[in-house]
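Review form for a predicted model. The reviewer records the input and the model, then writes brief findings.
Reviewer: anonymous (R2)
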Amino acid sequence: MGSMEYLQIDLDKLSNNQNHIVTKFDVLTHNVDEIKRVIAQISEKLLVLEEAVSDRRILKNEMTYMKNRIDELFAIVKEGKEDVSVKSEDVRDAESCHSGFSCTSRVAMTTGIDRDTIRSAYDDVRSDGSPTEWAVFKFEGARIVCSARGSDFTEFRTQFSDDERAFGYLRLQMGDEMSKRKKFMFVTWVGPNVSVINRAKMSTDKAIIKDIISNFAVELQLESQAEIDIDQFKEALNRAGGANYGTGVRDL
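Model under review:
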């Protein structure tokens, strides 16, 4: 067999290998296209799933809100049964609402909010350039307003009486000489003499103001003057933010 024949055989092998590579490449291209198609389908299903999760979250929030409203009305009914001034038809209507049927009670429960002044007080407490370290929010009728601001914690303690409901927002300096930082706290005050009706309304009223007062490390509910204690507040913030490690040397 001559050299030309060997050369022809090698060329034929090379051609066959080339054709085999081209075939493999075509198959690979097809597989890549198929993978892209599957990924696109998965992406579409993920979008649908995300929308469903979002809708479910919204529905859950609405159901929680409605449950709080129903519990609130039921508390009104419960206390109203002990008050002869409450008309019997109102009681029956409110009870039917709590049972899941028609709700035609004429008791007004909507709470309003002074958004501008509350937002202003919130921003004031959060501002590093402001001396204001706390703000208190109280009820004027059925409306939540900012009732006071200040920087002295002793004055803050005097803002809460036993027969009222209120909210507080504070800025406290935490940390040690190596790492000083500001921490924020939201407190709910329910005095010991507050009625059952108003106690029941706190969950929904608190949700209203927290739509503005949204940034804080710790939330506390206080029901006695003894609980309005700066050391207890700082201890709660330390538990939420971790321990402090200092040398005990004060800054000069």
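Findings: The longest strand covers residues 165-176.
Further findings: The radius of gyration is 33 Å.
Recommendation: see findings above.
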